[in-house]
Amino acid sequence: MARALQLPEGRVLRYLGLRVVQVVPTILAIVVLNFFFLRLAPGDLAEVMAGEAGSATPEYMAMLRQQFGLDEPLLVQFLKYMGQLFQLNLGYSFRNSMPVLDLILTRAPNTALLMLSSLVLAVALGILFGAISAQWRGRWPDGVLSAFSTIGFATPLFWVGLMLIVLFSVELRWLPAGGMRDLQQVHTGLAAVGDVALHMVLPVLSLAFFYIAIYTRLTRSAMLEVQELDFVRTARAKGIAPLPIAVRHVLRNALLPIVTMTGLQLGTLLSGSVVIETVFAWPGMGRLAFDAVFQRDINLLLGVLFFSSFLVIVSNLATDLVYALLDPRIDVR
Amino acid sequence: MSLDATDILPRAAAASAPAAPKPRRAVRTSSFGYRFLRSRTALAGSIGLALVAGAALFAGQIFPGDPLDMVARPFMWPLTSAEYPLGTDMLGRDILVGLVYAARVSLAVGLAAAGLAVALGVVFGALSGYFGGWVDQVLTRITEVFQTMPPLVFVVVVVAILTPSVSSIVLGIAVTSWPQVARLVRAEALRLRDAEFVQAARVMGMGHFRIILTHILPNAISPVVVAGSILVASAILTEAALSFLGLGDPNLISWGSMIGSGREVLRTAWYMTALPGLAISLTVMALNLLGNGLNDVLNPRVSLT
After folding, report:
1. Which residues lie closer than 8 Å to A71 by C-beta, 6 or more apart?
2. Which CATH number fits the domain that encloses residue B219?
3. Of A161, A164, B77, B269, which sees the most CB atoms within 10 A?
4. Which pLDDT tens digit goes with each residue over B259-272?
5. B138 and chain A: CB distance < 8 Å anywhere?
6. Among A174-183, A193-202, A320-329, B156-165, the range of highest mean pLDDT
């Protein structure tokens, strides 16, 4: 990264500033959409509350509406809603008797653990498989790995999860089928870490399956492209052995698209984790969204949508920044 | 390759060449049909898809009667009975019949969602790329907003708020997948809007919308066709995930909802979960192969083997 350190600081900072400014309208639009959805959902907050209480007179409902500001003009309500969001207040979940943001923040680390482990596994295996494929292009390892990635692209994540449960939990009894911790005995220290790790194996494998296929294909095509370039031929002519060429000349230069892909993948990875968390009863954000749907907790559901969209924006920004740092040719007007 | 002897030589000369032992029939090797038949991926994909679509279309003729009927003893494993080759589910319904009828729902949702997404994407992309300037700025920002929200979470919100039904599922999937098409079409329109034949049309006094319809879109169709078949595949996967989560149309059975109900007996009868998953996998694979094949077929620079 010596090159990155020599960059004029101002260039990257100016670029970052510009991107942040560009992001503001996107966030605003998402806020508008969220508010629109909130209004569109059948039953307002007063009805939900009254339903909880069992019975409600029209006077009580009117009082509730006044209390929550639901009788004010739409524009006033929208401005208040926006004001709340900018104070990081995502509303209150009456089902869980907790502020939405607190609920999300208690679950987010579990989702992050699941997603990051899957991503690391997918990138590592995908680069390995892709490199093997490119190196033995057209021969049997390439054929086997292509078949694997074709299957990976076409198979629903949740089904992979269910089949892994059948094999490893039901038939072989090697791994737990769900949850994050052993409920029968409380582990402490290192044993607790091991317990979580054991529960993570199947969900991580299922979530990574699809992404291994993506990275395999991406690495393969990026490496094949770089292999044709002049400096690789020069290296070959100098008599460098094939393996060092593949790793140090070809792979290193094929990594840029992989960085982009990783940053832009967060949204779909979050989507994948919704289903995987549901399959494995993993206590993360996806599971929270799933429960919110069936408890008709629209506030919570929209909170998860807003929070995860925000994460995607941040990760896109980070990707752009890494990209600009890695490749000085990128125009950062 | 696109350039072949038959393309360069006048046809009569090629046919009457004395050196040739047999008069060679003039086949245009650059034609779509020829290239399609030469592409193994495109062919394999379309055969697979034709089988699934045929079964779905003629489900009523192949298996007359209600697929929800309880016809036999429940929990019959596949390959144990000649009459029910794929076994029966927990209510004694024939799984093969269920799979074939569910194919209708999955394919219909996939096609409708992809169709709507392509329509939205073409309109946004063409306007954005052709007009440029502030129109492009605004439309690109809108596209970005829809690309930012995690797709499945967004679909779940749309379907949950509109209550689960085929139309809300189609709408939800389309709303999350059109940006990909819009970006493709925008890039094509951007490339074509200063092409000479478009400039000529403009000089002739042709209106903007007529130029877009008759000059820009026909030339931008190849990537859209490819993206379309991949979109059908991903829409089928999304529909399956939604139905599995319990957000499918409650009145219809799709492959996803079969997996969802099979899951309850996963420990004792995993075949009820495995079979619909295989059906999804094979269908999606066929569509992906068709998409990749079409990509090669429509790109004259790719030589087919």
Report:
1. A62, A65
2. 1.10.3720.10
3. A161
4. 988 888 888 888 88
5. no
6. B156-165
Distance in Å, alpha carbon of A310 to nearest chain B alpha carbon: 8
For residue A302, give the nearest of B141, B157, B240 by CB distance. Answer: B157
With b meaning 16 or more CB within 10 Å and e meaning fewer, what string describes A307-327? Answer: bbbbbbbebbbebbbbebbee
**In contact, A229 and A245? CB cutoff 8 Å:** no
Instruction: Determine which of A40-44, A98-102, A329-333, B81-85 has the lowest per-residue pLDDT on average.
Output: A329-333
CB A236 within 8 A of CB A227: no
A153 contacts in chain B (CB < 8 Å): 284-285, 288
Instruction: List chain B residues with CB under 8 Å of A209.
Output: none
C-alpha dihedral, B186 to B187 to B188 to B194, nearest 10°: 100
Residue B227 lies in a domain: yes
CB contact under 8 A, B153 and A153: no
- Tell me the residue type at B74: P
B267 and A CB contact within 8 Å:
yes
Integer Cα distance of B305 and B294 in angstroms: 14
Instruction: Give the amino acid at A176.
Output: P
Whether residue B8 has pLDDT greater than 60: no
Q: Which of B146, B147, B153 to mutate to test the interface with A (most CBs of A within 10 A)?
A: B153
pTM comes to 0.85
* Residue B29 to residue A180: CA distance in whole angstroms: 59
**Shortest Cα–Cα distance, B26 to chain A (Å):** 32
> How many structural domains are present in chain B?
1
> Is pLDDT at A238 greater than 60 in this prediction?
yes
Chain B, nearest residue to A293 by Cα: B160
Chain B residues with beta carbon closer than 8 angstroms to that of A290 = 156, 245
For residue B293, give the nearest of B120, B39, B16 by alpha carbon.
B39
Q: Best interface-test mutation with B: which of A151, A207, A293, A320 has the largest number of B CBs within 10 A?
A: A293
B165 lies in a domain?
yes
B156 touches chain A (CB under 8 A): yes
C-alpha to C-alpha distance for A60 and A67, rounded to whole angstroms? 10
pLDDT for A8 equals 52
The strand ranges marked E within A212-298 are none
Is the pLDDT at B194 greater than 60, yes or no?
A: yes
- From residue B8, how far is each of A79, A191, B34, B36 by CA, in Å? 68, 75, 17, 21
- Is residue B70 included in any domain, yes or no? no
* Cα B199 to Cα B210: distance, rounded to the nearest angstrom: 13
Shortest distance, CA B18 to any CA of chain A (angstroms)? 39
**B289 part of a folded domain:** yes
ipTM over 0.85: no
Domain extent, residue B116, equals 32-64+78-298
Quote the tokens at residue B237. 């996967």
DSSP secondary structure of B184-226? HHHHHHHHHTTSHHHHHHHHTT--HHHHIIIIIHHHTHHHHHH
Q: What is the pLDDT of residue A321?
A: 79
Q: Do B281 and A159 touch (CB under 8 A)?
A: yes
